[in-house]
């Protein structure tokens, strides 16, 4: 790993100022970033830790507001999440392993933009939004709008995710279903999130380069499927035909 400097700012303004440099990257949980640095894929000269900015709170007051530095394990164990958004807690139980969930953060997981992540398609289907702070402005995007492609987001230079807001689940039925080729906590070959209200909201991932909205079951045939180590494009398309139907059934059962 190439040498780097570590900054630990104590307020957001300082963090954003430090990030306004070509050779700086934000550090949240670091579970993905460190692997990429060890592999030589990324060689930042400066890491700016977001760990001391107080962005690790979970608040439920109608909607759910989650600080970007909240660990996935804290989100999984939150009583408020289990009561109001049980589909999120269920999804987290098979997201990697508990050692990773103890360190990885929600904001880091979203900003990494790996299409194999489990939470992004679910948050997209739930209608969640990300709050983003920059040096000169703040903005809000839907989680769906956050993604531009494989490992690409629409975040600008010196911008960070500060919070994620999830609307109340209410009477909606919701499910997340993933199919892996190894253990249950492995990266998915395909992931499917479904939320049922007056209509079906369906997002698929892992088979596509970003969380992708699916208009109907018939739309699977027109998807650009990405083959990888977890399965060929043809195999993943077959999995989607099966998994989308199962996820819809699970969401219907959750609604009863």
Report the CATH C-level class of the largest domain: Alpha Beta
Order of helices and strands: EHEHEEEHHHHHHEEHEEEEEEEH
Q: Compute the average pLDDT.
A: 95
Tally of DSSP β-strands? 14
Low-confidence region ranges: none
Q: Which fold name corresponds to the CATH topology of the largest domain?
A: Uridine Diphospho-n-acetylenolpyruvylglucosamine Reductase, domain 3
What does this structure look like?
There is one protein chain. This protein is an alpha+beta fold and 256 residues long. It has 2 domains: 58-166, Uridine Diphospho-n-acetylenolpyruvylglucosamine Reductase, domain 3, CATH 3.30.465; 173-255, 2-Layer Sandwich (Enolase-like, domain 1), CATH 3.30.390.50. It has 10 helices and 14 strands. It has helices at 12-19, 31-38, 72-77, 79-84, 86-92, 98-101, 106-112, 119-126, 143-146, 233-255; strands spanning 5-7, 24-27, 46-49, 58-61, 63-67, 129-133, 138-142, 147-149, 152-153, 160-166, 173-179, 190-196, 200-205, 212-214. The strands form 4 sheets. A 5-stranded antiparallel β-sheet has the order 4-5-10-6-7. Strand 13 (200-205) and strand 14 (212-214) form a beta hairpin. The mean pLDDT is 95.
